[in-house]
UniProtKB/TrEMBL annotation:
The keyword Mitochondrion applies. The keyword Mitochondrion applies. This is Enoyl reductase (ER) domain-containing protein. It comes from Caenorhabditis angaria. InterPro entries: ADH-like_N, ER, GroES-like_sf, NAD(P)-bd_dom_sf, Quin_OxRdtase/zeta-crystal_CS, RTN4IP1, YIM1/Zinc_Alcohol_DH_Fams. It holds the Pfam family ADH_N. Its main location: mitochondrion. It is found in: Mitochondrion. Keywords: Mitochondrion, Oxidoreductase, Transit peptide. The lineage of its organism: Eukaryota, Metazoa, Ecdysozoa, Nematoda, Chromadorea. One of its GO terms (molecular function) is oxidoreductase activity.
Length: 350
């Protein structure tokens, strides 16, 4: 098969390699029809997570010589099931699915990928393959962050949520997930030209480029029970000031220093310095009855099933900024590396 491969963390190149085989019960072989490109793909193709994911790979394989490289990036796809392994009862060859692949496994920027059946869900029948693939990774990341924040379908109605980066892949999906759960008040920072998009999704947009004006607007819209940060900006850090006091309010950031610290300093020092940064941010909140946490993409079958249902009901719509061909992957990586999206860049496989 054709696959985009990072040989040693210095970018990607197109290679001909063997089609992967099912090795464990519960796995499926998927023929990829479309995949999204995410900042993590660009980062991993350049070595991000080399230390942590490399160590994880060795432990998972019980083999000290195992390595993360060569690696295939790509964390989600829309696909057709080619074959199913033992113990897979919910899928059959020919089914059209959405899938997510954990960071430790080979990814979806290849013609075939192995996925866990439990992390696949039905492709919404109203969406094309390229539209559908704009959903899984960003939705699962938003879902993971809300899980840490203890926001869910049952309690979202009563939460007031501030999202930093509302026009990006994760931010725009976080708004839609909250809306689907019945959340009434969502405020999102974005640039001025993203106002129509953010408003259409159901959030109140705030222009982050004028910091003082943004602060005043946020003060007038406060308090918030939940802050979700997808950008790690000064305004995002300041926004602890518009959270409720002594009401268990939470600030969750998906921009964690963990992997970069570990890549730079090794696992023990990297863990220690991340914990120190976490402590510095948490301690201020702690004295005001609030809390802070980093959050990470965690594959979830529950999220995938909700996503398919909400998308089929039209409650969640894909926001696709650019569709590229499989052969144009390098161009797609350059685009995504700019972190200035209005939704997703997706790859259509021929
Ligand atoms: N922890 C995890 O597991 C995890 C998972 C997924 C993503 N991430 C990280 O989360 C970040 C966002 O990912 P993404 O996929 O949403 O990226 P994306 O689609 O490129 O979106 C980034 C968005 O941030 C906006 N932005 C930039 N500066 C801003 C600011 N100061 N205030 C408000 N918005 C600002 C950009 O809009 P403008 O063009 O209008 O500025 C853009 O819409 C990335 O750093 C990614 O690595 C982490």
């Amino acid at each position: 098969m054709k696959a985009w491969v990072s040989e040693n963390g210095h970018g990607i190149e197109l290679r001909e390699i063997d089609v992967p085989t099912i090795k464990k019960p519960g796995q499926v072989l998927l023929k990829v029809k479309a995949a999204s490109i995410n900042p993590i793909d660009v980062d991993m193709s350049q070595g991000y997570g080399r230390e942590f994911l490399g160590a994880w790979r060795k432990v998972a394989d019980f083999d000290p010589s195992s390595s993360r490289f060569p690696l295939i990036p790509g964390r989600d796809c829309s696909a057709v099931v080619e074959a199913v392994g033992a113990d897979v009862h919910n899928l059959a060859a020919g089914d059209e699915v959405l899938a997510i692949v954990p960071v430790i496994n080979q990814g979806t920027h290849a013609e075939y990928v192995i996925a866990d059946a439990k992390f696949c869900s039905k492709k919404p029948s109203n969406l094309s393959f390229e539209d559908a693939t704009a959903l899984p990774y960003v939705a699962t990341t938003a879902y993971s962050a809300f899980k840490i924040a203890q926001v869910n379908q049952k309690n979202a109605k009563n939460q007031r949520v501030l999202i930093h980066g509302g026009a990006g892949g994760v931010g725009s999906m976080a708004i839609q997930l909250l809306k689907s759960w019945g959340c009434q008040k969502i405020v999102a920072t974005c640039s001025k030209d993203s106002f129509p998009l953010v408003t259409k999704l159901g959030a109140i947009p705030i222009d982050y480029s004028d910091m003082e004006a943004a602060k005043n607007q946020l003060i007038s819209l406060a308090p918030f029970e939940v802050v979700l940060d997808t950008v790690d900006s000064e305004l995002a850090k300041w926004s602890d000031n518009v959270m409720g006091v002594w009401r268990n309010c939470v600030h969750v950031s998906i921009v964690s220093p963990l992997m970069r610290e570990i890549d730079k300093n090794g696992i023990p020092i990297g863990l220690f310095s991340t914990a120190t940064k976490h402590f510095e941010r948490s301690i201020q909140s702690h004295f005001r009855g609030r809390w802070f946490s980093y959050a990470f993409f965690m594959p979830s079958g529950t999220c995938m099933r909700q996503l398919s249902t909400f998308a089929e009901q039209g409650k969640i719509v894909p926001i696709v900024e650019k569709v590229i061909k499989f052969d144009e992957m390098v161009h797609g990586y350059e685009k995504v590396s700019q972190l200035s999206g209005r939704g997703k860049t997706v790859v259509k496989f021929e």
